[in-house]
Amino acid sequence: QVQLVESGGGLVQPGGSLRLSCVASGSILRYYTMAWYRQAPGKQREVVARITNGGDTYYADFVKGRFTISRDNSQKTVYLQMNSLQAEDTAVYYCNTGTAIWDWGQGTRVTVSS
To answer: How confident is the model at residue 26, as a pLDDT?
Structure first.
């Protein structure tokens, strides 16, 4: 089973930036569409962005123009560059395949607050 380890979260002021990383065990990440998800307190987990193994990207409307998803298959890593962060972006962020077929990792907590 693939293990996912997310990192890079933290406390940031509104308007700030963070870069999240997700490393997958094994070497099969390259074959999958990967996605970042987030779950805010009291809310369901939602898709933030996806990237195909060919590099095509999709963004949820609420992050479009602010977040950028990328991947480095040689490093088995998916990234999420988050700019212009807002309080509404506060959540635990997770990565998984585009259809979430792997076990969830522990996530990385992002808190946007002044």
So the answer is: 83
